[in-house]
Amino acid sequence: MVSSRSNSIPEINEIKSSALELIGNTPLVALDRLYTGPGRILAKCEFMNPGASIKCRASFNMIDKARKSGELKPGAPVVEITSGNQGTGLAVVCAVLDHPLTIAMSAGNSAQRAIHMEALGATCIKVPQVSGVPGSVTSDDLKAVEDCGLELVEKLNAFFVNQFNNSNNLLAHYETTGPEIWRQTGHHVDAFVATVGTAGTFMGTTKYLKEQNPAIKAYVVEPAGAEAIKGDPITKPLHLLQGSGYGTVPNLFKYEHMDGTLSVTDEEAVKYKELAGEKEGLYVGYTSGANIAGAVKLLKSGKLPENAWVVTTLNDTGLKYSPRK
């Protein structure tokens, strides 16, 4: 029997070879229902990465560069300290590339993140908190996690990803996030705003965007009371923005690409997290809510043209967090 399919029609193969090819190229969505103006908020849907967060980008780049340089040998163990999202991104990458992964994470970070990492084959060590409480992780807690991670590196003779000091972290966003935003907006970006954890996203993205147009403004979003980058005293180290606002200036952060900071309270982060769900159908995490709140504040501040487009990131899914009581 002769096939009815014409031989002149080419076969189209859209099959991805692995989860690694699902990283990046996330959609950019207008939050026109949540915010009606003046100006416009455009959000990069980073929760659509295979590890459900923006950290997949840096995870892949840091591991890929280490493998290519020979610093990470095939099948060798990997160790990292994380608030959860970087660990999940690394778990995706290490599962595909066959590297045993051990993660040190504060017990104060959400249990859902640990469950996610472990489901991808990683070993997650939950480090007891020093000064924080569940749902709020302080710089003291992070130091305890770092100490545990360094012990694991020595014990396992493992490659230490070291996201807080790894230049391939920010390079991932210089090479992918920034160019994607520039292309998706048709080269129309007035400002970029983002929370800062390691500073990889902010530094890499803003460096690229400002190289395309130096007039683009870049603002750091910080939790109220933990505004180390702004230079204010730390009065509220306990806040809801897991993975950011640790009360210190990250080593990867440089002031040269920043035009200012935006303070966001827990209540504002929760408000816009919930509005993203109720108005836009997007269930995101607390730093995503903070990013939206920061974008709204910037657009209402009068610092930008009335018709300005502000781009931000929706860093992860709301499924990574425990329900608030």
H/E element string? EEHEHEHEHEHEHEEHHE
Looking at how many chains there are and whether they match, the oligomeric state comes to single chain
Structural class: alpha/beta
Beta content comes to 15-25%
Quote the average pLDDT.
Answer: 94
- Largest sheet, if any? 6 strands, mixed
Instruction: Describe the global form.
Output: globular
In angstroms, what is the radius of gyration? 20 Å
Termini separation: 65 Å
Helix content: 25-40%
Strand order of the largest sheet: 1-2-10-7-8-9
Tally of contiguous helical segments = 8
Family: Belongs to the cysteine synthase/cystathionine beta-synthase family.
Keywords: Amino-acid biosynthesis, Cysteine biosynthesis, Pyridoxal phosphate, Transferase
Cofactor: pyridoxal 5'-phosphate
Domain Tryptophan synthase beta chain-like PALP: 21-315
Write the layout of secondary structure elements.
Blueprint (H helix, E strand, L loop, with lengths): L27 E3 L9 E6 L9 H15 L8 E5 L2 H13 L3 E6 L4 H9 L3 E5 L11 H18 L2 E2 L6 H18 L6 E5 L4 H13 L4 E7 L36 E5 L1 H15 L5 H15 L8 E6 L11
Parallel strand pairs: 2-10, 3-4, 3-6, 4-5, 7-8, 7-10, 8-9
Antiparallel strand pairs: 1-2
Helix pairs in contact: 1-2, 1-5, 2-3, 5-6, 7-8
